[in-house]
Amino acid sequence: MQLEKHQIQDLNQDALPSHQRKFNYISGEVKNAEEVVKKLEAFNIAIPSWALGTGGTRFGRFSGGGEPRSLEEKIEDVGLIHALNRSSNSISLHIPWDIPDNAASVKALAAQLGLHFDAVNSNTFQDQKDQALSYKFGSLHHVDKSVRQQAVEHNIQVINYGVELGSKALSVWLADGSNFPGQLNFRNAFQNTLESLQEIYTALPDDWKVWVEYKPYEPNFYSTTIGDWGQSYLLASKLGDKASTLVDLGHHLPNTNIEQIVSLLLMEGKLAGFHFNDSKYGDDDLTVGSINPYQLFLIFNELVEGMDARGLDHATGIGWMIDASHNVKDPIEDLLQSVEAIKIAYAQALLVDYKVLKDAQLNNDVVKAQDILQSAYRTDVRPLLAEARLRAGGVIDPVSAFRKLNVRGELIKERGLKTVATGL
Ligand SMILES: [Mn+2]
C-alpha cells in the first residue's frame, strides 16, 4: 500500500484552519520559530526493521493484523510512516532477521519511497538454524576461539550486506556476559571482545563506522561484558576513530543521568548515536517519551548544546534511531508517536537560549538556569512540528491520518489478519 498525494492534501485541508491558528500563536511567542521549523524539516529518525511487527515478551506474543511478512513489506511500512511524517527516511536492518537476498531490488524499492538504509545490526545473541557453534556462553567474548571466529565472520557478512545497500555503519550489541559469579574472568572476556572487534574493525570500509552498544544486564544477570558506557568507550578508544559508543536509552540502570553521559561522549567525539525508547524499570522498550519526556528533553538539551559546540550538523552529525518494541499498540502508530516525541524534545531544546543559560551558570544563578530549561520544556512546540511536516509534504496529524485513511485496515486486506512479522 502507498499513500497518494491527494489523500494527504485532503486530510490537511480539514486540519489547516486550526493548525494555522496554533502556528501563528507560537510564531509570535518563540523568536526563532522559523529556524526551528527548518531544523525540524531536516531531522529524520531511522526506523528499525524489527519494530514493524507487534513485539512479544518472553511469555507470549499477540500479533496484530496486516503485519509485514517480508523485508519488502517492512520497507513499505517505513514508506507509509515517512509519507505521513516526512521524518523517517531510513530503515535499519537486522541480520539475519532481514537478509536482503536481492539487494538491488530492495534498494530500488526503498529509493522509490524516499528511503535509504541506516546502520546494519548483527546478531550473535541467539543461535540460528544450521549454525555450527552455539552462542550459549557468548560470542565475541567466548572462551573458545572458534566461536569468536564464527561471530566475527557473521559481523563481516553483515558489513557486506550493508555495503550492498549503501549503509555506512555496523551496530554491535552483544548479549555476552555471565549469570553467576566466578563464571567468567572479566579481563579475559574483555580482551577477547576487543580482539574480536579489532578483526571486525579491520573489515570496515573506509567510510564506515562501528557503533558499540552497551547494556548493564539482561539476558545475563550477573555481568555483561560491555555493560556500561565506560566499557564501550574503552573498547571504542582502543579500536580507533571509526569506533564510537551507541547509547540505547533503555540500557541504563534506573535513574542514571544519561544526559551527562551524552555530554561527555560528545565532548570526546565518541558518541555514535542513539537507540531511542523509554522505560520505567529496565530495558522496557516502550514508546519514546511515554514515561519520562523530561529526561528526553534534558538529553536533547545536551545534544544541541554539545553538537553546536563541536560544529556538528544536528541532522547528520550522529545516528538517530528508534529501538522499541512492545505488544499492545499498532506498531506503525507506536512509531509515529515515538518520532513525534523525539522531535518535540529536539524542538524544545532548540528553544533554549544557550548564551543566557551560560550566563546563569557562570553566575551560579541556579533558579534562572532551571527556569530557562523548564520554560523551554513547557512550551507546546507541536504546531512547529506540524508546520515542518506540512512544508515537507506530510500530514498535520500523523496518527489521526493513519486512522482516518484506515491504513491498518488496508494492510490487513492486502496481507491478511493472521500475519506475524519476521524477527523478534
Ligand atoms: Mn538497542
TrEMBL record:
Keywords in alphabetical order, please: Isomerase, Manganese, Metal-binding
Answer whether the UniProt record assigns the keyword Nuclease to this protein.
Answer: no
Q: Which GO terms describe its molecular function?
A: isomerase activity; metal ion binding
Keyword Manganese found: yes
Name of protein: Sugar isomerase
